[in-house]
Structure prediction request, 444 residues.
Amino acid sequence: MKKLKLTIAVTGLNNTDNPGPGIPVIRGIRESQEIESRIIGLAYENLEPGIYMPLMIDKTYMIPYPSSGTDAYMERIEEINQKDPIDLIIPNLDAELYTFMKAEPRLRELGIKTFLPTMEQFEERHKANLVAYGKKYDIKVPKSSTITSHNDIRKIKNDFDYPVLVKGKFYDAYIAYNEDQVTNHYNKISAKWGLPIIIQEFVKGTEVNVVALGDGLGNTIAAVPMRKLFITDKGKAWSGITLNDEEMIRITNDLIAETKWRGGMELEMIKTNKNDYYMIEINPRIPAWVYLAVGAGQNIPEALVKLAMGEHVAPYHDYQVGKMFIRYSMDMLGDIQEFEQLSIFGEIEQSQLHYPNTQKI
Amino acid sequence: MKLKKNIAVSENGFLFDPNSGESYSLNKTGQLIVKLISEGKSEAEIIENIMEKYDVESNALQRYLDDFIMMLQQMNLLQKEED
Prediction:
């Protein structure tokens, strides 16, 4: 079989205790028998661990934060593309998706492909729009209100029973048992992530998740359900297991068929004791635990790359139930010269990294 | 009384529910009861079988078995009657 030879740029190399999906996405691509890849890492911070991990990235370039504006952001991507022509970019962080979706035509002109949801798909599934979304697509969602001021907290106080969840637009969620705690979390989240804040009914049950891939035509190319077995104090999965749950797959298939979702997605649901499923969040990208799906038999990063390149991809139907992942943390050693190279020149080659006792690519 | 479909029990007494992702460790007696349930035995047959193997008073055994079955129900491991 002739392999697809591609240069693929990937973001989300922050393999910290709040891990980005970059490295798991790269692992899926590296393990593909159908893709021969040169991987370009796009990093926001010099100390994103993925940059230094052995056998993952061929060359890393520093890029500015999306908050510096689309023009500055795209100028840097263009500059990188001139030096190191990119076939495909896979953005993996919530906060940069909008910039990439907006820049899609400009990227296309440069010959760079993406495989992202449409702006409409992206906007309508926002946490702040979840109630309308549930109504439109006939999905159970918890009652929620979007608020933008302290006054609103008082206005909606009779609409909910405690406890409630207080959530940021992109990140963070805390449980509040009374009005004071709501105000407290409101202040904390809005200072960090801005407004609006979402107040959501607390649905009791088990949190379950699906990682899925839609082809943009209404077909589910891949879908693997998982339950978190160990959750960190940041609410991140540190261990998880694949489930045999036909209802979760049905909900996913229906949603992708209705919305014609394009790209990777993560559905977060609460399964109640009565076996009802409430959608609590739809993340418009591949989650950091995607390597579990790869290990269970559905190489979602590989399928996404092929779809982006216009290749035919047959939908996956099977996966191994009871496949588990367990994360760990480990110290890597490096030299100050590597850090210097990245800090001064904003780029570093795989060959400039120093990994003792590791075979290089 | 039936175990839910797909529930796997290993020879070591490790029970895995692929629907919820939960797993449990059974002791020897628990293992035997689950085995008898999966063979389609009734409560009376289970009691009879255990009394043949262990020196236990039947009323006490009935109480323990009721508790154990209730626990299996709470953990959602048994098929509901209407299933």
